[in-house]
Amino acid sequence: MSHTTSLAALGAALLVSSSAGATGFHEYGQDFVPRDKTEVDLSGYFRTRGEALYNLDLDRGLQSNGQPIFPVAQSDPKAQTLTHWDMRWRTDVNVYAPGSMVAVKARIDMLDNVALGSLPEGIPSASGTQRSPADVVRVRRAYGELLLPFGFIAAGRMGTSWGLGMVANGGDCLDCDSADAADRVAFITPLFGHIFALAYDFSATGPQAVRPNQNRTIGFEPSTDVRTATFAWLRWKDDETRLRRRRAGKTTVEYGSYITHRWQTDDVPAAYLSTAQAVDSFANGGSGVTARGFRATAFDGWLRLTFPWARVEAEAAFITATVDQPSLLPGFLLRDPAKSKQIGAVLQTDFGPIDSMFTAGLDAGYASGDPAPGFGVVVNPNAKAPQNGDLDGPQANPRRDNRVDNFKFHSDYRIDRILFREIIGAVTDAMYARPHARVRLTRTKSAELSATTDIIGSRAVEASSTLSGKAPLGVEIDPSLVFQTHAFLAALDYAILFPLAGFDNITTGQSGKPAQLIRLRLNYLF
Hints:
Layout: H1 3-13, E1 39-54, E2 81-96, E3 102-115, E4 137-148, E5 151-159, E6 181-191, E7 194-204, E8 208-210, E9 217-219, E10 226-235, H2 239-247, E11 252-267, E12 290-307, E13 310-323, E14 338-351, E15 358-367, H3 419-424, E16 430-443, E17 447-460, E18 472-485, E19 488-499, E20 515-525
Antiparallel strand pairs: 1-2, 1-20, 2-3, 3-4, 4-5, 5-6, 6-7, 7-10, 8-9, 10-11, 11-12, 12-13, 13-14, 14-15, 15-16, 16-17, 17-18, 18-19, 19-20
């Protein structure tokens, strides 16, 4: 067998949906098979979700900044329930050239998370239709793949994911709301029973100028470019192989790790900051260039053990970063650099034999914290430093505080439905335990009905980050009823959160009251 043929065989063994594309390094090229003519493959889904959210401000009063921790009705702040519906149509397009060497792929989202009833035409009460949003179509990915005798080359804007999706997450799940993508050139090759990958990302390119008489631009401050280089290696098996080995009573061991480094020499803050008046920027004849000296390095390890009766999977990451000059104002320099050390880890387990009607497990996670007030989920360079009693805010406050040490899980790595997903926004500065169980109620050849229940207990790593200065955050119970066929999925989700001392209002003496959520999810697959 020639080396080119063996690479194609490897690609056929790598698991990826026929969707546009690969999000993990292990997924590239699985669909490379000989073709006599150009072929086009379409897949995707239409999703609509409706939800009712009850008391997500927890009736615990206002933060120190005078705002509730979750939006409330302006006409009646005592009202308890907010409702919402949204939708998304996602299409993955794969175009294959004749032969077995070239493919071009794209992911397109239409009406992405657009609220039903939004953008009425004219006076709302008299509107008979809805206007399309300005970004009615979003091209999430567009890239090409090439099979060579010694590996795969991929180039373009592509999804990026790794391990359990704790850090890098392609947003491929049916209930995901965001996604990571990289403008990347990558080389992937199989060697010695492993997959090795090198990637170079154009993470950000500095200010652009229009080229004369061309519909193109050019970056004219190369020192402000942000670039990322990644090396990864892993041992991986596809779902069919793992299932076959489970049925044979064998254990499958998979693992991988990566190191990635990002850097930027200079910066132009005026290109992305909104200020009340122009600083020394291009607008008033200045260069706007500020020395930055940013560099960050991340290490990540992933392990999956698939036993005949269980799955145990874990991921851990360490990130360190330094910003030599954290000032955002040209000509105003800070004396000390900003630094960061962050640690995150997750564990997932499922116990139960193949095709069992009942499975259960215990998940857990840890995200390092920062002693600054607030959890630091929302990144807003213009935001003021948080005070004790604030839920969020920047974790650095130069010159007094030049560290940002809270590790933040990807927003699509979800462990619950209220506390971290809706109120805080992501898992950060926290540890949690999550026992869960699933029971299959009925199954036919074409459909299945199942029920699940999760219980999540959590506490802050740094008590000073919470609203009250106390570590316990809450206990949440999340049951679901799920019906699915090969082309349709419906899920009815419920959640109730019992907030703990971390949400107490130390100014008014109020304690948080339980919050509830009901969500109906409908997914039409093609």
